[in-house]
Amino acid sequence: MYEIYTANSKAEKLLARYVKGRQDIVGKLHKLKQSPRTEIGAHPLHGRLAGKWSCWLGSSIRMVYSIDDSNRRIVVEAVGTHNVY
Q: Which residues neighbour 2 within 8 Å (Cβ) at sequence distance 6 or greater?
């Protein structure tokens, strides 16, 4: 199972705020930790965000992250609406 880390304090604060406001996100993050490439609508990004992944946490909540397979880490880089792209 992968562990979730944040890339910076801004991503950490935003993720904590969304988790606090919507308890269903906790379950979605748990699924993502099991399989970061296939769960909750995970898909690779292209263009300037190539090499990063995105997934759906709620109706308009997206999370951009990178996957570190060697250390089994999901590194959250941004959380928010589609504007995170």
A: 32, 33, 34, 36, 67, 72, 73, 74
Residue with tokens 């979605």: 28
Provide the CA 47 distance to its chain's centre, in angstroms: 18
Q: What is the pTM of this model?
A: 0.89
Question: What gap in Å lies between CA 39 and CA 35, rounded to an integer?
Answer: 6
CB under 8 A, 24+ apart: contacts of 66-70 = 66/7, 67/2, 67/36, 67/37
Percent of the chain at pLDDT exceeding 70: 96
pLDDT band, very low/low/confident/very high, at 4 (cuts 50, 70, 90)? very high
Q: Give the DSSP H or E segment for 61.
A: strand 61-68
Domains and CATH numbers, the chain: 3-84 (3.30.2310.20)
CA quadruple 54, 58, 34, 77: dihedral sign? positive
